[in-house]
Amino acid sequence: MDAPVPLIAAALLAAGAILLPGARGRAWSMLGALVIAPVILLWHIADSEQLDTLTDRPAVAAGAAAVGLAAVGALALLFHRRPVAFPLAAALALPFRVPISTGGSTANLLVPLYLVVAAGALAYAVPRILGRATPEEHAVGWLERVLGLTVLLYAVQAIGSSDFDKALENTVFFFVPFAVLFVLLGRVAWTTRLAVQCLGVLTALAVVFVGIGFVEYATRHLLLNPKVIASNQFEEYFRVNSLFFDPNIYGRFLAVVMLAVTCVLLWTRRARDFALTAALLALLWPGLLLTLSQSSFAALLVGLAVLGGLRWDPRRAAMAAGGVVVVGVLIVLLAGSAIRLDLGSADSLDDATSGRVELVEGGLRLFGDAPLLGHGSGSFSREYRRAEDASGEQAVSASHTIPVTVAAEQGVVGLALYLALLALAFVRLFRAAARDLVRVALAAAFAAVVVHTLSYAAFLEDPVTWALLGAGVALARLPRTAAA
Q1: φ/ψ bin of 159: left (φ > 0), alpha (ψ from -120 to 50), beta (otherwise)
Q2: Mean of the pLDDT values across residues 9-38?
Q3: If I label 474, which of 196, 236, 308, 328 is the partner at 20 to 30 A Cα–Cα?
Q4: C-alpha–C-alpha distance, residues 313 and 381, integer Å
Q5: At a CB cut-off of 8 Å and minimum separation 6, what does 282 contact?
Q6: 108 forms bridges with which residues in the sheet?
Q7: 3-state secondary structure at position 74
Q8: How far is CA 327 from CA 324, 335, 343, in A?
């Protein structure tokens, strides 16, 4: 079996789940994609040491598989009987990652979310395959077309990539299951009550994560990620990441939750809700500060500007955000030595951004070497090390600027598709954003995520992006949700 063939087949099935007009075709595509993806992965690591743990202890492997299948079956039955349980379960599973060794490296995978997605796909697909579900309309817009094409193009451009393993892992672990998540959330009958319940789940998780972060900071001991632990030992500052494997991903999650809570704060007319949301923000803000995530601070600022523009006046909100940026620039100019940042020095900027400047410059050079089709999906790390003669220890998993990563790996074709996706997503989410709080929160959160990806990795590799788009697509189909 030639490796690219099944990979493209999985991507085709995932795209079919998004694009096919008939419910039965979407159902078969969902199940096919979720079945073939793990088969591809197992075949891919068949000769590696990772599979020895399973083959050496078949009884344990069989028992674990049985438990997993039983959990998926039980969840599928629950989602079939109570459809509102699926988005709540997805919100609960969204941030949790489990370290799994694949292809000689360790990937932090959203195993709980995969179980929820598989169960949701079963609950959706089986009644439609058997013809027992109520007929439904499925209008496919340009956003869905571009999303489906993006998934397929990524798999196709894995052919000839210098790091096919990375492209395969991204497709199997992220693009395929998250495409199914997007479809399932796009079929949810969203109401303000359901959205508030999801926010309650996310906020409760954020409070727990922040509490763990406080303990980490007080004890100067991190629970996860040896790289961050080692970094903290050699720096004057101390970054926390709670139960996340990366302070920036932790900060992104907190920023998204804080924007949703701020949305309630700005629009509520009840003193009790105002006091509760203010207290939550007062707790979450120092938790975000302890991540020292510059990208998360920028994302939160832009998200707040979006909320201000939708709540009051876009021009005033833009002026306020610009004022904050000006103050920051003045601080750098007037007190640059105190914060060890010199705008006139490329090395200083590179140090202040944890090597982002050097990575971006290298990524742009890679784009210049292969501007049309790029170097292949997932190839940035390997091509950067080759071109820049960089050490294998250097953190070059991506350029940490998503447009640069896309341009280097997929060329003008992939970059054009990425820009089209952004434009269509913003139009879809902002077109009716002023109608109710749910759409306002989704629009602000998506803007924040996009800004975050401009200085950090993971756009479509993050389920938050797909979840926001899925919920936004579902709400866009409705003339108006319930009054907030």
Answers
A1: beta
A2: 92
A3: 308
A4: 43
A5: none
A6: 99
A7: helix
A8: 5, 12, 15
The pTM of this model reads 0.88
The confidence score (pLDDT) of residue 105 equals 57
What's the full length of the chain, in residues? 484
Counting Cα atoms < 13 Å in the Cβ hemisphere of 179 gives 36
Q: Is the pLDDT of residue 350 over 90?
A: no
Tens of pLDDT along 276-291? 999 999 999 999 999 9
Q: What would the mean pLDDT of 157-171 be, rounded to a whole number?
A: 90
Instruction: Please state, in angstroms and as integers, the Cα–Cα distance from residue 49 to each residue in 37, 44, 56, 102, 170, following that order.
Output: 20, 12, 11, 9, 20
Q: Give the type of residue at 276.
A: L
If we measure between CA atoms, which residue out of 446, 421, 463 comes closest to residue 148? 421
- Determine if residue 225 is left, alpha or beta; phi over 0 gives left, psi from -120 to 50 gives alpha, anything else beta: left
Neighbours of 432 (CB within 10 A): 18
- 3-state SS, residue 109: strand
Give the least confident one: 29-43, 83-97, 268-282, 342-356. 342-356
What is the phi-psi region of residue 229: left when phi exceeds 0, alpha when psi lies from -120 to 50, beta otherwise?
alpha
Residue with tokens 């820009």: 419
pLDDT the model gives residue 238: 83
Extract the tokens encoding 174: 């992220």
The DSSP line for 196-251 is HHHHHHHHHHHHHHHHHHHHHHHHT--SS-HHHHHHHHHSSS----TTSS-HHHHH
Asked if 303 and 259 count as a contact pair (C-beta separation under 8 A), the reply is yes
Q: Give dist(CA 414, CA 159) in Å, integer.
A: 14
Q: In the predicted model, is pLDDT for residue 79 greater than 80?
A: yes
Angle at 72 between CA 70 and CA 77, to 5 degrees: 95
Burial of residue 421, with CB atoms counted within 10 A of its CB: 0-12 exposed, 13-18 middle, 19 or more buried: buried
List the structure tokens of 143: 């956003």
Q: Percent of the chain at pLDDT above 90?
A: 53
Q: What is the pLDDT of residues 216-242, one digit of tens each?
A: 999 888 877 666 655 555 566 788 988
- Residue 457 backbone dihedrals phi, psi, to 5 degrees: -80, 175
C-alpha 17: how far from its chain's center? 19
Best CA proximity match to 403, nearest among 359, 466, 446:
359
Residue 293 and residue 251 in contact, taking contact as beta carbons nearer than 8 Å? yes
Quick one: pLDDT at residue 422? 96
Short-list 290, 303, 324, 262, CA closest to 464:
303
- Of residues 38 and 446, the one with the higher pLDDT is 446
Q: Rounded to 5 degrees, what are φ and ψ at 313?
A: -135, 125
d(Cα 398, Cα 62) in Å, to the nearest integer?
36
pLDDT of residue 456: 84
Task: Provide the pLDDT for residue 460.
Answer: 92
